[in-house]
Design brief:
14% helix, homodimer, mainly beta, 4 helices, 183 residues, eight-stranded antiparallel sheet, globular, two-stranded antiparallel sheet, Pnp Oxidase, Chain A, 35% strand
Amino acid sequence: MQEGRIERAFTYFESGAVLLVTTNDGTKDNVMTISWQMVLDFVPHIAISTGDWNESFQTILDKKECCLCVPTFDMLEKVVQIGTSHGSECDKFERFSLPKAKAKINKAPLIPDCLAVLECKLEDYVEEHGILIFKGLLLWENTKKKEQRVIHANGDGTFFADGEFRNMRKEMGQWVPKGSERL
Amino acid sequence: MQEGRIERAFTYFESGAVLLVTTNDGTKDNVMTISWQMVLDFVPHIAISTGDWNESFQTILDKKECCLCVPTFDMLEKVVQIGTSHGSECDKFERFSLPKAKAKINKAPLIPDCLAVLECKLEDYVEEHGILIFKGLLLWENTKKKEQRVIHANGDGTFFADGEFRNMRKEMGQWVPKGSERL
């Protein structure tokens, strides 16, 4: 992975990609699967919706950081396995043969097989609605990976990959955020 | 469109589909395009991120309701046109030849060409982060529409349709929410 322009970081999230969220509690790395995520602005701030049924949740509140990793469609089996197991029972990176690497700012690891990773700090927790608000600090990209399609969860146990592509930049004109072009 | 089970309403949103959000300010219907949206639970509560640059925003705060409509990929041109024009300049339904219909609970109209429509009431506004929290009240489905692919915005003026499909219900087991099966 190489560092990328933060101006286009939000474009890895806006389509509603399923995410792998990594944490480090001071002793151990952990990773969870999240599909409830939303872009808030172009900084970017990213919101995720989760709660105390996820072990990583308390670690995020304690350490105030995580890495938001965007897996590709060829990683779907691992993404489901990660989402249906608990970090208290095993080391998920080991059990699911998921390579990891040191981040630059955060203690939480990168997942270098992913299409992109955003090192984030926690800015707020909207407790009433279970929403964590992150600010993206540093973008990592994997532009050379052959599989570039991300995963979309339907929530009923089925998934889609990115399919037909359309470039509407001409039609959108001034509405395309400057520096965002990626695809 | 026909009424559908509210238990599967969240599945129309979880993949990160671009939405058309309809409102009625007491005098006039309006519609805006939103891709910053997130599921919060299976009720469902749905969050969207917006602000006062959208005319519909003030109407939602005033009337405390809207319809969240899920357009299909064949509607992409209209979705972009709606997203790049202002309701103050024109009647968007008329200008873009967008059929509408009466909702059952809400004053805001349905868009019957969409794959699904969720009649929602506003439950909260998290001002600090520009997040509107909706509770879904009634689901409309368009199960007979030939085009079932939804739209995913990358945020840089490019879009994807749903592509390759994978059913992982067996692998997910108990983690598939009861009554959610749609695809």
